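I have been asked to look over a protein record a colleague put together. The record follows directly below this note.
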Amino acid sequence: MLAAGFWVYKNLLAPTTPEQAANRLQFNASVSPAEQQKIQQAIIEQEKTYRGAVSVNVETKAELEAGAAHNSILSAYVPVTNVYAVRQMISPSELSDIDLFVPADTDDVVRSALAKTLGIDGEKLQPLSGPVEELDDEAVAFVPAEQLSPQIKLLALDDKYYLDSFTSGAVFRYAVFSGGMASGLSDLALNDYPTKETTLKVNMTGVTALTREMMRKMHSVGGPTFFSEKIGPFLADADITHVSNEVSFKENCEYSATRFCSPPEMIEALKASGVDLVELTGNHNNDVGSQYNTETINLYHSLGWHTVGGGLNAEEARKPYIADLKGSKVAFLAYNFADAPASGAIAGPSTAGANPFSFEAVESDVAAAKQQADFVIVNIQYWECYAYPDGYVEFPECDAPIGQQAEVFRQVIDLGADMVIGSSAHQPQTYELYKGKPIYYGLGNLYFDQTRWPGTERGIILTHYFVGGKLIQTKLSPTVYDKNFQTRLMTNDEATYLLRRLQVAR
C-alpha cells in the first residue's frame, strides 16, 4: 500500500509546470494548499488513474445548477450566527453594513474568493477570534457546511436556505479539471458536505385540533384541505412530518366547548400536510369515548402513518417510534405530563389513550431507545397557558416556561434525552440550549380555531436536519392562522416580532 501511494505521488502529484511531462497535476493560484491536499488525497483513496497533464483550478459561485452532479465540490460556505439571534436570513444588500467573519484558519485564497463572490471587499471578512457560537446577535460568519451544529444558527442567504436546496444558500467552491486526460477525474468525489441524499429532514409541529369552528368553516369553504392549502406543501417537504393531533375522528361528530371530535373527512387536511408521524399525548383524544380513539389510531396505521405517545393500550402507548432513514436513526418518545389516569385521557391495560409521564419511565425508555438510535427526541404534553380574559390581548407570561416546566424539561435532558419539545401551551414559548442540548418549551398551535388571543393563532414548525445520525441544525419557521383558520408561514416582520418576544422571555 505504501508503495502504491508513493507511485501516485511521484507520477501524479508532484509539483510541475505546464512544460513538464504527462501524468502530472498542475494547480493554479485559485487552489489553496488545503484544497490541493484534499484533491490529492481523494485521488489516492479512490485509486484514480489517468495519463496526461491535468491542470486544476477552483471556481467559486453562489448557486449551482439544480439537479446536476456536483462530485467536484470542495466546500460549501454557509452563513451562520448566534443560535439565539432573531435574524433568520441575510441579504447581499446587508453584507457591507454588518460584521462578517470566517474561521481563523481560512486560507487567504479562499477568503478572497468568498469575498469576490459575495461582492464585498476581502478585508471585510475578518478571522474569528473565538468560537463561532459566541458571535454577537447581529454578526454573521461564513463557515464550511460540515461545521454546522445545533449550537449555531444557519441563515438563509438571499432568501434561500442551504439545507433545503443544497444548490443555493451557500458560497460553493468546486474543482475544475482540464487538459489531456481530465476526463479521468470527471467523477472524482470530493464532497464531504451535507447533501439531499445524506440529510434526514424532520418537520415537527405543535397542537392540531380539527374541531369546533373549523367544522363549520369546512362546510362553507368546500372541504378540509382549505386549512392546509398554504402550509401543507411546506410541511410535506420532509422525510418525516409530525403532528400532535389531539382530537379523534367520529361520524356525525357533535362537539361542545370542551368536548372535542372531528368529522372523518378532516383527515384530508393531514394527508395534504404530508403527515408520517402522529403524536397522541393530547388530553382530548378520548373525549367522545376511547372506542373512537381506537378507530382513529387504526385509521392512522392503515394509512402507513406511525404513532407515538399514545396507543391502543398502555403498553403500545409507551413504545418509541424509531426512524431509520438516510443513514440516521432517530427515536421519538412522547408523554402526557398534565393529566392523571382518572382524567380519562391516559391509556389503560386494554383501552386507548395517552402515555403518562414519570421520570422513572423516561429514564428507562430513553436508555432503551439509545440502544437502538443515534438521537432521542422526547415530546411532553405540558400544561396550557392562557387566562381566558375578554378581548384580543397578548399573554407575555406564556412566552416563558410555566410552572416547573424548565426544571422538568431540563431533568429529562439529564436523564439522557438529546432534545425535549413541549406541547399544549397553545402558543409559542421560548427555547434554550441546556448543557448543549436543545429544549423547545412550546410550539403553539398548528391547526385550531383559537382566535380570541393573538398568541394562540401562532405556532412554530421545527425542521431538524440529521447527517450520519448527528443533528446538524434545527430551523424555526413561525406560522400564524387567520380568522378563517388557514395556517401560513409568517412574513419576515411577523417572524422577527415573535422571535424577539421569545428571546426576551428566555
